[in-house]
Amino acid sequence: MSAPSRLRIAVVASDVALRSRLAGLVAGSGHEIVELTAAPDAILTDCAVDSSPPARVVAIGSVEGQIAGRLPPDATREQIDAALRAVAAGLTVRGASSRNRKFGPFAEEVWPVLTPREIEVLAALSDGLSNKAAARRLGISPHTVKFHIESLFKKLGAASRAEAVAKGLRRQIVEI
Questions:
Q1: Percent of the chain with pLDDT over 70
Q2: Domain 8-100: which topology?
Q3: pLDDT tens, 2-52?
Q4: Is pLDDT larger for residue 98 or for residue 72?
Q5: Which of 59, 74, 96, 157 could link 63 by a cystine bridge, Cβ 3.0 to 4.6 Å?
C-alpha cells in the first residue's frame, strides 16, 4: 500500500507565530492542515503532546517522550515533508542531533547505509533476542538473521553483538 500524496497534518506549536510558520512549510509541501480532532495522518510539533496522540508525531527540536520522528530545529521543508510521509507510513525518523554534527569538508564521519531489514535485526539485538527469537519476531529464518548480523558487524565495524548495539545507539539507528 503506498502513502497518499497529500497527507492530513495537525500542527501543534508553543506559540502562534511558530505554528503559522510550520503550517506554511507543511502546506507548501502540498499537505492539508487539520485540527488534532480531525483524524490527522501525522502531527508536527515543537512541544510535548499528550501521552496518546491521535496520530504518529514528528517533533522539531528536543521533545521528550516516545515519538515516531525527531528533527533538528533547522530542518528544511523537504526534511519535514519526508519525515511526515515516513511516520505516516509507519517508519521512525531520527535527524542528526546538533551535538553529532561536525563541520568541514573532511570532518564528517561516513556512516554505512543499513537496509531496513538490518535495522530490524539490530533492533532485535538491542532487545537482547537470540538469533532464533529474532527470526520468529521478523518472520525469517535463523540463517537469514545470522547473515544480517554478519553484515551489520562488517558495516558497523563491530566485533560483537553488544558492540553493534552500542554503535547503533550512538548513531541513533536504534533506541532502547
A1: 87
A2: Rossmann fold (3.40.50)
A3: 555 899 999 998 888 889 999 999 998 999 999 988 999 999 998 867 778
A4: 72
A5: 59
Dmax over Cα atoms in the chain, in whole Å? 54
CA 109 vs CA 44, 93, 114, 158, 171: distances in Å? 29, 20, 15, 16, 11
CA-to-CA distance for 108 and 102, rounded, in angstroms? 6
Provide the grid cell at 135.
Answer: 527470526
> Measured at the alpha carbon of residue 69, what is the angle toward residues 16 and 21, in degrees to the nearest 5?
25
77: nearest Cα among 39, 143, 31? 31
Class of domain 116-170: mainly alpha
* Dihedral class, residue 93 (left if φ above 0, else alpha if ψ from -120 to 50, else beta): beta
Query: With bands split at pLDDT 50, 70 and 90, how would you rate the model's confidence at 97?
Result: low
Quick one: cell of 58? 514528528
Q: What are the C-alpha distances in Å from 56 to residues 4, 94, 146, 153?
A: 15, 14, 32, 32
